[in-house]
Amino acid sequence: MNDNLVTVRVWGDYACFTRPEMKVERVSYPVMTPSAARGVLEAIFWEPEIYYLIDSIHIIRRGRWFSFRRNEVISVISIDNAKTWMKSPEKISPIRAGGGAADGTQRNMLALEGVEYLITAELRLSEIGKKRGHSLKTYRAEIERRAKNGKCFHRPYLGVREFAADFDWEDDAQGALDRRAAELGKNLQNIWPEEELGLMLYDVFDHEQRTHGFRWLTKEELEAQPKKKSAPRWEGSLVKPEAVFFQANIKDAKLDCHPNRVRMARNQVIGK
Q: How much is the pTM?
């Protein structure tokens, strides 16, 4: 067992890993994206001292396609409106969706039903974590404890927040796959032997920039700084969103995701 590898099994009734080239209607990728997998792990445990690199995603249940129409909103809440609401809620009209509301619209969604995945990720120390002096074993033990007890900072979800995910810790990826294969009575490798999925979203944040980590300074740390207008209010590095894609390939019901092993593509123009 590698000290820097974590494995979590996730499943849920519904999932939608939205393809970014679909501008209006939501259409899911056929499998969980590395970005969604990272979101599940960070919902369970995240600190500025660590970051995750998704190693692989094993498909235990592919799910089936289904479509439905749902109510969405077309309005956006501004920061000024949020500040006004905090002081005088009666001055703000809430955004309403459905029932013919002016802020709402109906859109179609093509999603997945009944999915289950096994996420294996590499745990790494950020630059902030290296300064703290704690070992990866400390953080890995915390992730294991939280996952086994069902604890999370917020409920993990499968692509969109409406589709909540259940999760459980797994000590060994291969052992978990063998156990689930016996429970389901099928050879998991045969449910998806091989398929080239083409260009898939890897993440909305470049993994190379996440190595620095980020955290806001405490009040005490801010007061200890020299009184300068340019004094930083955070430690680490602000990471700007940048869509990163990769050539996705399913083989033996496994999506290989490690950035050292897949072909990455940046600054792609999609949807045209």
A: 0.86
